[in-house]
Amino acid sequence: MASMTMIPADCSSSTAATTRLLPMSCHKGKALHFSRWVSLSNRLTASSFPSLSFKARASSPLISAKIVIENAAKVIDGKEVAKQIRKEIAVEISRMKDAIGVVPGLAVILVGDRKDSATYVCNKKKACEAVGINSFEVHVPENSTEQELLDSISKFNEDPSVHGILVQLPLPSHMNEEKILNAVGIEKDVDGFHPLNIGRLAMRGREPLFVPCTPKGCIELLHRYGIEIKGKRAVVIGRSNIVGMPAALLLQREDATVTIVHSRTKNPEDIIKQADIVISAVGQANMVRGSWLKPGAVVIDVGINPVEDAESPRGYRLIGDVCYEEAIEVASAVTPVPGGVGPMTIAMLLSNTLSSAKRVHNFR
Ligand SMILES: Nc1nc2c(c(=O)[nH]1)N[C@@H](CN(C=O)c1ccc(C(=O)N[C@@H](CCC(=O)O)C(=O)O)cc1)CN2
Question: Which intervals hold domain Tetrahydrofolate dehydrogenase/cyclohydrolase NAD(P)-binding (predicted)?
Answer without folding.
Answer: 212-359
